[in-house]
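P.,

For your records, the input lines for the assembly:
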Amino acid sequence: MNSEVSRTPTGLHALHPLTKLTLMLLALVAAAAMPTTLAVLAVFLGLLLPLAAWGRCLGAFLRTCLRVMTPFFISLVLIQGFFTPGPTALLRLGPFRYTLEGLLVALLFSSRLLVGLGAATLLMMVTRPDALMRALVARGLPNQIAYIVVTALQIVPTFQARAHSILDAQRSRGLETEGRLIVRLRAFAPLVGPLILSSLMEIEERAIALEARAFNRAGRRTSLISLRDTRGQALLRRVLLLAGLALVAARLMLWRAA
Amino acid sequence: MDGLKRSFGTMTLVLIPVAIAINIAVGQLALFVKVPLYLDSIGTILVGVLAGPWAGALTGFLSNAIWTLAGWYTPAFAFAGVAAIIGALAGVFGRAGWPNVWWKAILAGLITGLTAAILSAPIATYVFGGVMGSGTDVIVAMARSIGLDSLGANIAQGTFSDPMDKMATYLIVFLVLRALPLRFLARFTNLKARSG
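Structure tokens returned:
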């Protein structure tokens, strides 16, 4: 888990999960609706960066963005640059022309991905998944979905640990996991087999545990997590949703005019 | 949502998070052992086969949501719809009993892989600009250098990578179904019981 949530939430962390979700959705819509690279970058600089600074995770946010974006950026600049047709050649390499038009396409896609992936990254850095699920359940999401998401997030680390101990155990019996492709493929079966079978065998216990706690009973439940919402935030969410709709409408009008 | 709730026994409900964890753990194991396949949908297909199309679709969708949510692979959520369809298809194949026979399992993998390739390509093209920031971009570049457009190149890349991956996945699911005790399989009703 890479969420850096402090014990007593302040600033961005303290906002209601739905408010944060709406903010990030607006960023996504804006990234898709803005027609130029500069306008999309303005969303990143004007919305996401200040929010990250407010949430006191600017450094970690920028590092994650860099790590996630670098491979996309390299591939985009190379592939779009060389294969987008256009009149302005910046570079010639054998039969291939690197066009200015391609570079511009690459920059536009990169900026959109930066905002889209950045918004998702920031949301997760400042929101606890269980709090987000609690907020969504309060809005009508079935309890079962929240159970699945929260449980999966909790058990993945134990699964990763189990995968590694199986890897170590099979290696200590002489299983070769390095070398030619056929060796590695053959090594895969004794690794996945035990992992999948052992984890499936324990689900019956989990089912009994849930049934014993009347999970499927209808009716109201109390939750350990209490969320703080304010009137101001409820209003803000409405305004943000309207702004998002306005952006989409403006984009469609621009599109028809063109 | 209603059909979804009715098809959900407690066994299915507890199976799904375990399946999501299998997706992630095996996918990472594949990276670790440097197998050139994703193998990140074994859990999704297993749920679809055992518990039906709805449960399979939900597992696929939530699996990708969790990849994004946990920050392991942020772009995953864009492909959540494709993952849901892969899970739903597994439910249909399971009902027909295909995963019980090795060559039918491979055929199911081939069909799933081609479907995934065709559905993923427009997302890769129009959302990600035709690249995924991974080794498969080399195939996209090769396809474009012989004259395919962006969408065509992404379909070509998907058709090259996805069927292999999904055939291997279904083969693993076939083996897992053989190894699971009948008592366990009997708890789920979607998969046609195997004869012999």
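Two observations worth noting. Residues 1-127+239-258 of chain A form one domain. Chain A has a mean pLDDT of 88.

Regards
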